Structure formats: structure tokens, C-alpha cells
Amino acid sequence: MDASAESLTFGRIAATLPVKDIGRAHDFYCGLLGFNKLFENGDPVGFMILKRDAAEIHLTLQRDHKAAKFPVAHMIVDDADALHGVCVENGLRIIKRLGNADYGLRGFVFEDTEGNRIDVGQPI
């Protein structure tokens, strides 16, 4: 490691999710999952910061967004079963079914309204 990097302290890091429809993404994360909008920028809005508890998500408007075939964010929760239920009840696509992993997490992977794959984990 570079000597100058040794003295650095890192703070939070937040996932930036590309979205085609920032209003729909806002409604999903805020309306369904209970995040709160902290900031928005642009006219029309092209960037948003959402927060709930210790989780922070940045939304960026990308009209030509094509979702990745892999998870773009990992979300730690205290009840993976409850979040899984919310996803199923609201018709979200489950990519990886709910289950316990040998590395100590109970979780699943879902697609948000923009096709972004979110890997959910709960420590067990």
C-alpha cells in the first residue's frame, strides 16, 4: 500500500443505481421500501439520494440503461424473510430464491423496478 493511502480514513460508500424512470424508482424505494429522499438535482430531476436507517442509495437517470446480469448492490437487512415477502407480494422478480448460505447470510436476489439486481443478506 502506498504510504499516503495508509493515513486515509474511509467513510460511507453508497451504491449508484442507473434508472430509466427516476420517478418510478423513487416510488419503489420510498413508497414500498420506506426510504426517504434527502436530495435531488436537475430539471428534470436526474439524480437523487435516498436513505433509510444506515442504507443510502443514489439514483441516476440513464435513459438508455440496460440492467446488468449480476447484483449491483448488496443490502444488509435484519429480516430477509420480511423483505422477501414484500418483494413477492408486489410482483418483483426474484432472481435467486431465499435461503441460507454457508458463508453466514440468509438472503435472496431481486430485481427492482428498473431491472437492477439487489442482493439481500441477513446475518445468521
Largest sheet: 4 strands, mixed
How large a portion of the residues is in β-strands, by DSSP E?
35-45%
Overall shape: it is: globular
CATH superfamily: 2,3-Dihydroxybiphenyl 1,2-Dioxygenase, domain 1
- Here the CATH topology equals 2,3-Dihydroxybiphenyl 1,2-Dioxygenase, domain 1
* Uncertain residue segments: none
Mean pLDDT: 95
Q: Give the class-level CATH name.
A: Alpha Beta
Topology pattern, helix = H, strand = E: HEHEEEEHEEE
Domain module count: 1
How do the strands of the widest beta sheet line up side by side? Answer: 1-4-3-2
The tally of strands reads: 8
Helix count, per DSSP?
A: 3
Broad structural category = alpha/beta
Q: Could you say what the CATH architecture is?
A: Roll
Amino-to-carboxy terminus distance: 33 Å
Give a brief rundown of this model:
This protein has a single domain (3-123), classed as 2,3-Dihydroxybiphenyl 1,2-Dioxygenase, domain 1, CATH 3.10.180. The protein is built from 3 helices and 8 strands, in the order H-E-H-E-E-E-E-H-E-E-E. It has helices at residues 3-6, 22-32, 80-89; strands at 15-19, 36-41, 47-52, 55-61, 71-76, 94-100, 105-111, 117-123.
